[in-house]
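Shipment paperwork, digital attachment
Item: protein structure file
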Amino acid sequence: MKIKFLPFFLTIIFLTIFFVFYKSLQTSNIYTPKTNLEKNIPLFTADIFDSNKKISSEDIFKDNIYYLLNIWASWCAPCREEHIFLMDLSKSKKIEIIGLNYKDKIDNAKKFLNDFKSPYKIIISDLDGTLSIELGAYGVPESYLIYNKKILKKVVGPISTNSFSAINKLIK
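Attachment content:
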């Protein structure tokens, strides 16, 4: 009797383990934080890129002007992909682009800007990544469309044709 029960018991255990693994494969493990739109940008003071001067968020972001805060780095391959969209946006008089250089070496960032040109009105440095964390970023590149010191839209990853169109619709 014990010998006949053993295959049945092993089959039940195998099916249970198979079911658990199968269900875990169908569940996404990608963490995407909630985007709090209409959230005020945090107050901060940061170093101006390639300078010993500091600047506050209150000096950067004024009312009734659209800003695109773009978090980028020279070592970031997707940042190179989105750069053409940033250059197009920088030609618009309706929006100002602020760069936030993330955990980058100054010389590498300068070379990146010399090679691709700068779409940024001002660039601030985030050498240790704390400012990006305060903003709610969890990777590079990320961009925030800001109006009246409120985040209207967050673009996770590189700006693409779709997000470029969405930004243009919002600023018109």
